[in-house]
Amino acid sequence: MSGARIVREYGKQGPLVLVLHGGPGAPGGVAGLCERLAETFRVLEPFQRSSGKAPLTVERHVADLHALALCCQQPRPALVGHSWGAMLALAYAAAHPDSAGPLALLGCGTFDPESRARLRARGEERIDENLRSRLERLEREVADPDERLARFGELLLPVYSHDLVASPACERPDVRAHHETWNDMLRLQQAGVYPAALSAYRGPVLMLHGAQDPHPGAMIRDSLAPFLPQLEYREWPACGHYPWLERACGEEVIAFLRAWLLEHRPR
Q1: Stretch 137-162: mean pLDDT, rounded?
Q2: Alpha-carbon distance 210 to 137, whole Å?
Q3: Distances from the Cα of 96 to the Cα of 103, 167, 187, 221, angstroms
Q4: In Å, how far are 85, 108, 115, 232 from 220, measured between CA atoms?
Q5: Which of 37, 62, 243, 263 is the most exposed place for a label (fewest CB within 10 A)?
Q6: Residues 181-190: what's their mean pLDDT?
Q7: Predicted model pTM
Q8: Within 13 A of 146's CA, how many CA atoms are on the CB side?
């Protein structure tokens, strides 16, 4: 059904944590992160709204997340977001600053053209001719756009990561949801809404990033800092876009994130 929502639950005890997948339109990719956090927390993994009759917007995703938070009957749940999901966590906190608990951003996406240009350049540097040829063949060989996006992500996984112990367990992507949502975020950035609106949130914010992630962590941090002066930043050297799956630092990332969430849980 268009717009149908799936919420997977992990763990039964502890403070509530909502874990938001990236993409946009790439559900399931944070399942491994949810499983590890569930050792300490009650974790919910909402699959974000799929494409339908009306184009998707950031506002729609924020409203869906707020409806879920209200149903949880636990005030100010923590939000852990990966990539686009980190951006959604920030957008939610900006719209509902009194409802959002602590925010943890893993591999956060970009909020300005300069960071996006650096992301593209770093990605291009890592794509050799063989990989470029395989990516170009996808346009001819895979007709279904959702399947093509899935295959595209699989091929680019080594570009975005360092040394993974496993691949993210993503479900089938939704290419329309991806483009509609991301285009609306770009529109809002161009209109000056983001990142300025983030100053409405005064709670704790943690940004975890891998130095090998093409997303330029320090640039993204610096673009957010004027509006989120409370932002804490931690970077790991042998780490890419999926920190909890990296062989060299995955356990340390999980331990650090778990301790930070417990320290900043709403009282």
Answers
A1: 93
A2: 30
A3: 13, 33, 21, 22
A4: 15, 8, 6, 12
A5: 263
A6: 98
A7: 0.96
A8: 12
